[in-house]
Amino acid sequence: MAEPLLIRYMQPLIAGRRAECFELIQSALETQRAETLLCDIVWPAMAQVERLFTDDRINTAVAQMANRINRTVADQLQAHLPSMARVGKRAIIVSAALDAEELGAQMTADLLQARGWEVYFPGGGVPHDELLGLVGQLRPHVLIILGTEAELVPEARQLVEMIRDIGVCPTMNIIASGGIYNRADGLWQEVGADVHANDARELLEMIDDLAPREPGTQRVAVVKRRRRKRKAAPVA
Question: Residue 91 needs a FRET pair 20 to 30 A away by CA distance; which of 112, 138, 153, 193 works?
Fold first, then answer.
């Protein structure tokens, strides 16, 4: 029986074998959609690399090689995403200024854009006052905060408080996703987000039908992870 694609992809990814990774994904495109490969292969591979690095099972060189391979693969898959009709909704996506978080934010931006959303992606490291100005200018339906470093959680909380205290775009939902928001139970509520999604697939499943936020309230809702049986990928 053939090994699942994620396992076959993780082996050369951790070894830094770029060409083998690219060939695997290119071959998979013959039978699978680009969205499926981004959500079910590249995203979980990114999460596994982050987890292995956090647990000191791989070093910086290995993690950075893997993250750069994943970014190239994500760029290649973006060109194969369908272009759906505009849905009249707008999103801003920000992240921590780290390879994995910015990659996750980039994939989220690509997937939402393919779904017909108008997406703005400033990434990580943007000053709060500039993000506040961008929210006021664009008046998005959602602001997605993808991951953060543990020591920067107070800054994420400060950003949300600033947006809510000033009252800019009060019906905008703030969605926390990925990274430390998945690892620390309830953290998304502590920073003041309205909704939490574990990954891109869960976010895509709920975002089109997400009702406007009611000003002055926090929506306490967690998108439940669908149970899937998947073997853990080997690290070597």
Answer: 153
Residue 100's pLDDT is 81
Q: What is the Cα–Cα distance from 32 to 27, expressed in whole angstroms?
A: 9
Residue pLDDT, tens place only, 91-114: 999 988 778 889 999 999 999 999
State the CATH architecture for 90-222: 3-Layer(aba) Sandwich (3.40)
